[in-house]
Amino acid sequence: MSYTNFKIETDADGIALVTWDMPDKSMNVFTEEVMKELDAIIDQTTADPAVKGVVITSGKSSFSGGADLSMIKSMFTFQAEERKKDPDNAARKLFDLVGRMTGLFRKLETSGKPWVSAINGTCMGGAFEMSLACHGRVASNAKSVKIALPEVKVGIFPGAGGTQRVPRLTNTQDALQMMTTGSSLTPARAKAMGLVHEVVDPDKLIEAAKAMIKNGLKPVQPWDEKGFKLPGGGIWTPASAQLWPAASGILRRETYGNYPGAIAILKCVYEGLQVPFDTALKIEQRYFTEILQTTEAFSMIRSLFVSMQELGKGARRPAGVPKTELKKVGVVGAGFMGASIAYVTAAGGIPVTLIDRDMEAAEKGKTHSEGLVKDAIGKGRLTKEEGEALLSRITPSADYGDLRDAGLVIEAVFEDRQVKKDVIEKVEAVIAEDAIFASNTSTLPITGLARNSKRPDRFIGIHFFSPVEKMMLTEVILGKETGDRALAAALDYVAAIRKTPIVVNDTRGFYVNRCVFRYIHEAYDMLIEGVPPAMIENAAKMAGMPVGPLSLNDEVAIDLSQKILKAAVADLGDKAVDLRHMALIDKMVDELDRRGRKNGKGFYEYPAKPARKYLWPGLKELYPQKDAGEIEVGVLKQRLLVTIALEAARTIEEGIVTDPREADVGSILGFGFAPYTGGTLSYIDGMGAKAFVELCEKLAADHGDHFRPTPLLKEMAEKGETFYGRFDPYGAGQKAA
Ligand code: NAD
């Protein structure tokens, strides 16, 4: 029998080597067709007396990424349609659908023939769950091999037996940690945990897997053996009595109960370990069905899985513009940002000329990359040769003439219009006619800067976030005259350096900083009202934000906030800012010299390491403090999220952001907007425009007009619309990748 996605070769010892290699895909994933074919392969190998055992591996450099996006997405569509057709039975049908993968893997492990998974590359999610159903697991020790059950990161959990097999192979604490964090394991760690049997050199992988079968691997899983004992003794032991209260406590501390998928992992393991294996799988199936009906899972999968991939693959790239092959990129300004931009560009394989005012400054910029490379080699993320090759791609220079053959030049010089004008002119004097000029400005509108350019259609904003090496987002900003070629080139560049782009129209603060400053300004309001600073920070974390607003302001620098407020007053007048905010910030910066982390004094104090930062006690003296008992933490949480979401809605209404996927992904990658919501607009869609408008009205009555819902939101509330419905990203002119 032949298959589309698998190849089978049976050797003289009767071992069938099943190679998973999907045509036209760079990575294997579970699709309907793959499941059907795997089912048939189990039947075929089980029925064939000549087959003594099966080794399953991948024909690609990775093993598999797990379930296919469209398959998970289709479960949501299925559920929505079924609910309309047959509400009473909708959940039941979803339950059956969810159980298919579980059933398939159970069939594999009870087929009576020994199966070994030969993990040749990264093995994620459903693919590792399949491997866990195999009787033997051998992994290659290649550096690229990562093993993980990362489902929790997109709001679900390992629902194809993962929550039951992992804690039957390793101790409960490690099992819970692996699944609730979704973190990756090296093959060595997986072996130490008992999740793989052997780790071998890549060229010995198949041989080792076959040897397990030849050496008499039993086609029975430990949990199907009589007298099976759980590692660590199961639930009713003194060790468990210590573990479980702590496990719930830790999960609460890390997630504040915001992630139903993570909580479900604890429930599956706790309940599942007390019953026979098949019943345990049913328990998992029930929780999985429940989780698939949550708004959190729906929104997280959409933003963090589907949209992120689509944007990464160039969903917003103008059609018909040929791919830009960048043979060289120029970076002007080798300071804090420029040095890092040079590093990520070189890491993306593109040669860089790094220019500053003099050679010493340019070389200092390259030193930054040398430090990063050294660190990466030390951590085993780069080999010595890779590190050297990366560094050889960065050429420091003080001569603009060296930019002659650059296809793209990014400026990251001082945030000063005159300095930038000077740089634009110098660069344009040497670069080729069709080369693109990009500015990394964080506050100056691109259209204004482009007035200094002789070719504004080839002028664009590429806004990086600090630390550039870690932040996955880049904001691409279109000036009024930016053309399609510049946009395509910017997106091709962002793809080459493996970051996720969002494309926004020009405005003060662009998208991300507009939202971020709303968040910070709400904290100023709270401080002024007398909310204890610690409550502000804690409420933000409870709402799901990774960093409190005061801490964030310290990171971006309080004097930068002051500069931005002053610039707004200068350009737009007093009404553009809240004068109470101005007074607070002037006091912090001018009177108290508290500028943030950079001078070791901000809303926080920064004692010498290893001591940790703590809120500056003097902050409480600035305003009469309210009694903490009288403050509703729930309202603080709402204020912090709603003020950001409202700003995001304004950017859509003003045409700054045009695609809801970008608002959502940008908010999560840019400033960590409560990921369980799926992002700023999914947060509104998730509760419904009507409920959101009501919440805004209530907050406006109690906390100020900046909470007033916008005309667009009111209209959407009346019509029962969502952002994804009204601004359908898959509608006219925009296509899913
Ligand atoms: P920085 O002061 O660390 O670096 C600026 C560099 O530009 C310096 O090395 C300086 O010598 C060089 N420079 C100045 N004039 C020059 C000229 N005429 N020719 C060549 N080099 C020149 O500043 P930074 O924090 O890296 O910011 C640079 C730009 O990036 C600014 O526009 C800023 O708004 C933007 N930005 C900064 C951040 C951030 O977090 N710091 C984030 C996003 C964007």
Key terms:
globular; binds nicotinamide-adenine-dinucleotide; 737 residues; 2-enoyl-CoA Hydratase, Chain A, domain 1; N-(1-d-carboxylethyl)-l-norvaline Dehydrogenase, domain 2; 3 domains; 30 helices; alpha/beta; disordered C terminus; six-stranded mixed sheet; Rossmann fold
What does this structure look like?
The protein is α/β, with parallel strands linked by helices. The protein has three domains: 6-293, 2-enoyl-CoA Hydratase, Chain A, domain 1; 329-508, NAD(P)-binding Rossmann-like Domain (Rossmann fold); 513-726, N-(1-d-carboxylethyl)-l-norvaline Dehydrogenase, domain 2, CATH 1.10.1040. It is built from 30 helices and 18 strands. The strands form four sheets. It has an eight-stranded mixed sheet, sandwiched between helices. It has a six-stranded mixed sheet with strand order 1-2-3-4-6-8, sandwiched between helices. Strands 5-7 form a two-stranded parallel ribbon. This is Fatty oxidation complex alpha subunit includes: enoyl-CoA hydratase, 3-hydroxyacyl-CoA dehydrogenase, 3-hydroxybutyryl-CoA epimerase transmembrane protein. One of its GO terms (biological process) is fatty acid beta-oxidation. In the central section; belongs to the 3-hydroxyacyl-CoA dehydrogenase family.
Low-confidence stretches: 733-737
What percent of residues adopt helix (DSSP H or I)?
A: 40-55%
Structural class: alpha/beta
- Share in β-strands: 5-15%
Number of helices: 30
CATH 2nd-level architecture of the largest domain? Alpha-Beta Complex
The major β-sheet equals: 8 strands, mixed
Q: Whole-Å distance between the termini? A: 33 Å
Q: Give the C-alpha Rg.
A: 28 Å
Ligand kinds: nicotinamide-adenine-dinucleotide
CATH T-level fold name of the largest domain: 2-enoyl-CoA Hydratase, Chain A, domain 1
Average pLDDT across residues?
95
Backbone shape: globular
Under the CATH scheme, which class of the largest domain?
Alpha Beta
Total individual domains: 3
Number of strands: 18
The CATH superfamily title of the largest domain = 2-enoyl-CoA Hydratase, Chain A, domain 1
Strand order of the largest sheet: 11-10-9-12-13-14-15-16
Domain 3-hydroxyacyl-CoA dehydrogenase C-terminal: 509-606
Catalytic activity: a (3S)-3-hydroxyacyl-CoA + NAD(+) = a 3-oxoacyl-CoA + NADH + H(+)
Family: In the central section; belongs to the 3-hydroxyacyl-CoA dehydrogenase family.
Pfam families: 3HCDH, 3HCDH_N, ECH_1
